[in-house]
Specification:
The protein is α/β, with parallel strands linked by helices and 328 residues long. It is built from 15 helices and 14 strands.
């Protein structure tokens, strides 16, 4: 009788342990977005870590363990991660996600994810991260202080083209153990770009200037992602053709001299957007072809300046407005 009770007790303990392991397995599988049927990276928490990831300029980063407390230090990284990982793995994101991220509604629906105002080492370390995904323009002193505490920081370079965005998606996916999910994201990204390219076959490119003015005028020349967006949308970036590099100031006189077919601005209300009203109401610009013909392309700024999978949304919308006869 005693032996029977012992056998039953051991069987019960094994059953409880098995159920617990099953729940843990389901939790980890769900950490890379999707149900247990999708399983982007099965058992990623135990396989492939620690891992060394190659970076540009012959550098590398070591991710010692499967990260479960991830700080996204910029909106581009936050947008990429939002489609790759479960929200429970976010340790914190910048407060700007609700305004500047390409999918602000996602962040508004998830207010439980902690927010920070500025990239300060003490604040970031307070979230107890096991991975920080940053960018080249953020405070290098703060980044060094974080790394001194043995927290790995994945620095995403400023992107010069959509190929740079592709590389960022790949390395972020690898870093967080969701490489299969990242590959699916890239498949959609590439497919959408190809649809635009196919729809533009045989179309003559039109000249474009990207412009913003919040007290002084700015444009985007060569060597930045927006230049690539314009080209892939069937345009020629006149700022780049005139030797302007990166994000640079642009006067009304320069704009008049270049006289593009179209002007691209950021906005949410079409021709009623503030940047359009500024261009249309400025007397000195009334002779611009784009102004006279009302050829102002208006695309949400969160897409134009997205350094994430949402960059393709800008290409689609720019192409549609530059070439309204197509259906990208």
């Amino acid at each position: 009788m005693r032996r029977l009770r012992t056998v039953l007790l051991i069987s019960s303990l094994l059953l409880v342990a098995g159920l617990a392991l099953l729940r843990i397995s389901k939790y980890w599988d769900a950490c890379c977005f999707g149900s247990t049927q999708q399983r982007p990276d099965s058992h990623a928490h135990s396989q492939g870590f620690p891992k060394t990831l190659p970076l540009p300029d012959n550098k590398s980063i070591i991710i010692p363990t499967y990260p479960i407390r991830i700080v996204a230090a910029n909106t581009g990284a936050a947008d990429i991660l939002a489609e790759l990982i479960d929200i429970k793995r976010f340790a914190a994101v910048p407060v700007q996600v609700e305004e500047y991220a390409a999918d602000p509604d996602f962040w508004k629906r998830n207010p439980s994810i902690p927010r920070f105002e500025k990239f300060h080492a003490e604040r970031i370390l307070g979230y107890r991260p096991d991975l920080v995904i940053s960018s080249a323009f953020q405070d290098s002193t703060a980044a060094a202080a974080i790394e001194q505490q043995h927290v790995p920081i994945l620095h995403l370079n400023d992107f010069e083209s959509l190929d740079g965005v592709r590389s960022a998606i790949t390395i972020v996916g690898d870093a967080v153990g969701c490489s299969d999910a990242a590959k699916r994201m890239l498949a959609t990204f590439d497919s959408d770009l190809k649809k635009v390219a196919d729809s533009l076959a045989g179309k003559k490119p039109v000249t474009v200037i990207i412009y913003s003015n919040y007290g002084s005028g700015y444009t985007a020349g060569s060597g930045v992602c927006q230049d690539d967006m314009i080209q892939r949308a069937g345009g020629v970036n006149l700022a780049a053709q005139n030797g302007i590099k990166g994000h640079a100031s642009l006067t009304f006189e320069q704009l008049l001299r270049m006289d593009p077919d179209f002007i691209l601005v950021g906005g949410e209300a079409g021709l009623n957007s503030p940047q359009v009203k500024l261009l249309m109401s400025e007397p000195i610009l009334k002779e611009l072809r784009a102004v006279k013909n009302r050829h102002i392309v208006v695309v949400p700024s969160r897409y134009i300046y997205a350094l994430s999978q949402y960059s393709v949304r800008a290409v689609e919308e720019i192409a549609r407005q530059l070439h309204p006869e197509i259906k990208p």
